[in-house]
Structures
1.
Amino acid sequence: MNIFALEIWYDEGSICTFYTVRFLDDDRELESETDRFFETYIQRDKYREEGYILFRLLTESIGNKYGATDDFFNRYENKALSLPPKPYSNVEEIIDIGINFPLRLFCYRISKHIVILFNGGIKESKTVQESKSLSMKFYVAQQLVRKIQEAMYDNVVFISENERYLINYDYSTEIKTTLSYSFMKSKTVERLLENTPDDLKIFVDLYADLIVRINYLMEKKGYSQKYLSEKLQKRPSEIHKWLSGNHNFTLKSIAKLEAELGEKLLEVPKTNISLEHEKNYNR
């Protein structure tokens, strides 16, 4: 395997530090593997929204809110893992992503506080090995995990006292083997943090709150998805889709849910209009 550098990708969250891998080619510094992933898919109109959603899952949910818990790391790909997780959790951000998310990002979780991110692509087949854009990256991820595991086993790299960083055996900034270490920060992360669309931030937050509210009211009233599907005259699979983050709610569907659950799901502030303004408005 080519020589690669292990470098910090994002460490501004309060709980988890993310590293990435950058291959070194004849002393020419190339883009990191994780930067390649986000640069590729956020530049594509078809996957821009999904790219930003995955970016926020990393930096906000894992990095700053929960840490690298089992809820987020349950999709095993041989030695490596991939993100986003399978939606087998009540964590609202995971529910929001749902079951049909098209992107996969390979990674290796060292602890709750340290995750190494690799590259990824589009899952377009039943398995990642069968997906055209993932098969080779799956193989590379296995090799990277093996090299990193060997380095940690041999104490070439170890975890810092505060458990947030990886340290070289001699505390230097570079190891002269097939694994080197750098403190270089990702410019892609800085740009993504600055350019995440406001409407996407609002949508993700609202959607997550809505799903959590619906599930809370169903549990409170003792409603199952089957019962709700019968009352709304919908297929059970459709109700499952609604509640697993794979449905863009319309006002009509929200109104039907509110009527059946008997409580508000969304609240729109009422505006007090002066009599004079009301007269002008109604002319």
2.
Amino acid sequence: MSTTRERRQRLGTLIRQARKRRKLSQANLATLANLSPNVVGAIERGGTYSMSSLEDVALVLDWRPGATERYLRGEEVVLEAEPPPPADEVAVARLEVLEASAQDLARIRRIIEEVHGPAAADAFLQAAITMREEHRSQTAARRPDRAS
């Protein structure tokens, strides 16, 4: 079993690696998390910091809510959110949105609102509408002009 200090140092290393994978400087991460660069440095070194600062950094890195605190308690956790789906899954989802009826989209929006809140539901619906409009434009542009 590792000590709290060792877990803080290991977590700091994981945060530094995640920050670098995202090509963020400490200053950029600090700005996005609304913290000072000194606090981000302390977190990455495993120094002293508040749990709210740690959660602010985790949020910017798209880590699972509460995972850092559980990690520091010694629990086995997955810190990073699920990776984006493979491109073929995205293509299938896009096709499903294009073929969905208005009633289907409204039902999906209600489910998203229950799980993620109204802002996420509105973002989904706007993205679906935009996607459908773009698809219609592209389809119309590929059709030969019948007026000639």
